[in-house]
Design goal:
Layout (H helix, E strand, L loop, with lengths): L2 H13 L3 E2 L11 E6 L2 E7 L9 E3 L3 E9 L1 E6 L7 H4 L5 E8 L4 E13 L2 H13 L3 E2 L5 E17 L3 E8 L16 E7 L2 E20 L14 H11 L10 E7 L4 E6 L4 E9 L2 H5 L1 H6 L8 E3 L6 E2 L4
Parallel strand pairs: 9-18
Antiparallel strand pairs: 1-13, 2-3, 2-10, 4-8, 5-8, 5-17, 6-7, 7-11, 8-10, 10-13, 11-12, 13-16, 14-15, 15-16
């Protein structure tokens, strides 16, 4: 099992449905599409590249900090003996030891957090649904869409690849308060390391967390068609209703949009049929894959959590 197969279900549980963007410094934005491979989102492109226009909004940046910790314990004290101003860039004020237990043990310390999401989800999903049904935009059946990201001005993220490990740090500030390792006003220096880690120390402008959805078709038109969970099967079925041709956008009318589940009800006037589709949240089981899910422990224990506060345009895989 990869280290991500350990941390993704925990991040999902702690955040209420978000996943770790891996790597956190990679730029991923609202409206990006791609696939899930090896417990991570792999970006293929943006729906803007396929001709869709949409707006997004950002929440007011939170002054509070956010901290997620699992399988890690902190011990603070005086700066490590022998450290000087030259090794940390500023006068060393304190030392921090972080002891990790278990593969995938992690520390997420985030500061200056805000949320980016679609400004008008109903309008966006109405447009995207029509484009998909008319085959003006074609996505792979396993494609997923980013509909929300969390951004951080500064972040310290450390993930252990070893069963146990330890990092000794020296800081140019007093390590107190929530998410203190995200402090951008002071310098942080690794002075000793035992074990293998992924680490981003006081990194600026990261996108550590993302939310993903996938188009889903619970029933055939009118609720009486075949079970068609995939886009390709569904559009082929729609063609049979209109003489083997593609639908045109003016033929597709939105009857109802249900915010819960992003469910859309369209009517196809030329076929005298109704169509249901939804943009369903990706579950942790889908993200990990059922094979990984079967081998994953059924439960896990969080040691410490603190939260403060009009030719077809095809999505080509790169």
């Amino acid at each position: 099992m990869s280290v991500l197969s350990h941390i993704q279900p925990k991040i999902y549980s702690l955040t209420g449905g978000l996943f770790a963007n891996w790597m956190p410094s990679d730029h991923v934005d609202v409206g990006d599409y791609g696939s899930i491979r090896k417990e991570r989102f792999l970006r293929d492109g943006s729906l803007r590249d396929l001709g869709l226009q949409f707006a997004f909004e950002e929440t007011r940046k939170a002054a509070a900090k956010l901290e997620y910790v699992d399988g890690a314990k902190f011990k603070t004290g005086a700066a490590v003996s022998g450290e000087t101003t030259q090794t940390v860039g500023v006068k060393a004020k304190a030392g921090v030891s972080v002891q990790f237990s278990g593969v995938g043990a992690f520390v997420y310390h985030l500061s200056g957090i805000n949320q980016r999401r679609f400004k008008n989800p109903a309008k966006f999903y109405e447009l995207l649904g029509k484009e998909l049904l008319a085959e003006r935009v074609t996505l792979d059946d396993d494609a997923v869409l980013v509909d929300e990201v969390r951004l951080a001005d500064t972040s310290t993220i450390i993930v252990s690849e070893s069963k146990d490990g330890k990092l000794d740090l020296t800081t140019g500030f007093n390590p107190i308060g929530a998410a203190f390792l995200a402090n951008a006003k002071g310098k942080i220096q690794v002075t000793h390391s035992a074990g293998s880690f992924f680490r981003w120390i006081a990194d600026g402008s990261t996108i550590p967390l993302i939310h993903l959805v996938r188009p889903h078709f619970p029933d055939g038109p009118g609720g009486s068609g075949p079970s068609t969970g995939s886009l390709s099967k569904f559009v082929r079925y729609l063609r049979t209703l209109v003489g083997g041709r593609r639908l045109e956008i003016p033929e597709i009318h939105l009857e109802k949009y249900i915010e819960q589940g992003r469910r859309l009800h369209y009517s196809i006037k030329s076929a005298r049929e109704s169509v249901q589709m939804e943009f369903r949240d990706i579950t942790v089981e889908e993200f990990l894959g059922y094979e990984a899910q079967r081998s994953r422990p059924k439960s896990f224990v969080t040691e410490h959590v603190s939260v403060v506060a009009a030719r077809p345009r095809r999505a080509m895989r790169r």
